[in-house]
Amino acid sequence: MAEAVTSLLPCLIVGLGNPGDKYAGTRHNVGFEVIDRLSKRWAIPLKEERRFQGEYGVGFEPVARQKVYLLKPLTYMNRSGQSMRAVLDWLKLEPSQVLVVYDDMDLPVGRLRLRLSGSAGGHNGMKSAISHLGTQDFSRLRIGIGAGDRAGGSDKAVVSHVLGNFSKVERATMDAVVDTALRALEKALGDGVEKAMSLYNNVDLSNS
């Protein structure tokens, strides 16, 4: 199964989040933040594409000179897969060519984790992605946002945490995390996700 997952380098980078100023800068929108930073770093402009229900851009990653597509679904988090499916169908890509960037409460602030496949882990955006792609076999970059005070795991506490803003200390750490995420993505596109995993999955920026 692993060979099927690693047969193609990722070329569609998707960041998950919620559209609108209300959600900008929240923990749940760190996927959007990474795509925005990639757009600037790689000089790939994003514009809204109604056929994809998202902000979309195409260009070349400057290190490996690989053609890449950037996507921010504007469907709201729990329908992210609709936008992803539309792009895959239009470009005739395989799910194994997708790499999704999203927030993860199970990782502390300062950590990130690349994986070749896996379950949604309770993340509504990833549940939608897996449902619409019809497989769990696509790469993902999970960025830690910490668990916060889950108050026994109540839905209200979880929503309050993910839709809240980072503290000043967390924000400083997240700036370093996003910079690291950009380098990890460039490595994944150039040399494969497994190589990037070996270099970046054990990085801890919580004390940086």
Question: How would you characterize the overall build of this protein?
Answer:
The protein is an alpha/beta fold. The protein has one domain: Peptidyl-tRNA hydrolase (Rossmann fold, 3-Layer(aba) Sandwich). Helices cover 38% and strands 19% of the residues. The protein is built from seven helices and seven strands. The protein has helices at residues 2-6, 30-41, 80-91, 124-133, 155-162, 168-191, 193-200; strands spanning 12-15, 47-49, 54-61, 66-73, 98-104, 112-115, 139-144. It has a seven-stranded mixed β-sheet, with helices on both faces. β3 (54-61) and β4 form a beta hairpin. The model is unreliable at 1-7 (pLDDT under 50).
Short structural description:
The protein is α/β, with parallel strands linked by helices and 208 residues long. It is built from seven helices and seven strands; from the N terminus they run H-E-H-E-E-E-H-E-E-H-E-H-H-H.
Fill in the keyword field for this structure.
Rossmann fold; single chain; alpha/beta; 208 residues
Low-confidence stretches: 1-7
CATH class: Alpha Beta
Number of helices: 7
The share of residues in extended strands comes to 15-25%
Number of strands: 7
What helical percentage do the residues reach? 25-40%
Distance between the termini: 37 Å
Q: H/E order of the elements? A: HEHEEEHEEHEHHH
Question: What's the shape?
Answer: globular
**CATH domain fold name:** Rossmann fold
CATH homology-level superfamily? Peptidyl-tRNA hydrolase
CATH architecture descriptor text: 3-Layer(aba) Sandwich
The total domain count is 1
Strand order of the largest sheet: 2-3-4-1-5-7-6
| Structural class by secondary-structure content | alpha/beta
